[in-house]
Specification:
Layout lengths: L19 E4 L6 E2 L7 E8 L9 E4 L6 E7 L2 E6 L10 E10 L6 E11 L7 E2 L3 E7 L7 E4 L2 E2 L9 E5 L3 E2 L2 E2 L4 E3 L5 E4 L10 E10 L6 E11 L8 E3 L2 H4 L20 E9 L7 E9 L32 E2 L1
Parallel strand pairs: 2-8, 10-19
Antiparallel strand pairs: 1-3, 3-6, 4-7, 5-6, 7-8, 9-12, 11-17, 13-18, 14-15, 16-17, 18-19, 20-23, 21-22
Length: about 325
Amino acid sequence: MEGHCRVQLDVEDVNDNIPEIVLTSKPSPVREDAPSGTAVALISARDLDSGDNGKVTLQLPKHSPFNLKPDFSNNYELVTSGALDRESFSEYNVEVTATDSGSPPLSSKKTIHVSITDVNDNPPIFTQSTYDVYLKENGIPGSILYSVSASDLDFGENAKITYSILDSKVQDVSVSSYVYINSDNGSIYSMHSFDYEKLKVFQIQVQAKDQGSPSLSSNATVHIFILDQNDNAPAVIYPSSAVMGSLSHQKMSRSAKAGHLDDSSQRLVIEIKDDGEPAQSATVTVSILLEDGLHEPILDLRQKVAEPSKKSGRITLYLILSLA
């Protein structure tokens, strides 16, 4: 006898396949000002096992600025979930973990590189809000006075800085007549020599502007103090040279005896010297006229002639000098 039968074998699945993460679209660079929910990349997951062994879930690390948004069966969208700041993190390596539902579960990981592009959201910042510059008078025109510096946290064109001096008036004259600035490095130069006796202090406003769109800028104040140099000799304002003229003088020994000044008219040379470095000095010649009494003002000492016929035992002398 002979017989036939059909035998059906059911093969039970064992969780022996690791889930796979597939990047279905290449990640796009994300602007740092992108709103929450901006799509970054498309991801899919698959597992060759069946049943629960083939069910896959995806996860991201905690505190990640990204989320996984389910799209359709085993497909996800990687999207932003919060504010981004390129100056803090210019790129992210987002680690995605795929885990199946088998027992024991199997998992795999995939890292997705996301670049953050710069937005011009930082103005240039000076190293100081105010600068004090001390400059000696009588300097050489074109000399460098000071160099200011600013930096910008942004990137590329957004971080390129140009410097300028804002227009203002110094003694009713445009500040550009006094100083100019190198737009590339912030070095400030004098346009001419300064005179302490005419200008002691002035200030300028320096601006640093980036090349972003729209551009951002900031300002700093530079105070320039002119330092005095001993470049002026003492001036005799009385008696004036117009009255005294250029007169000769005679020297007298310190040991001269009484009666040495027996003439009725004498000339006295006085030197005036300041305490500067180097010292400056001026001289003045004074004519001294001896008379019995001062009856009237003597305006022109060069032309006054003594009257020897009048003599008295009483003599009045006046020596008046004014210094400036």
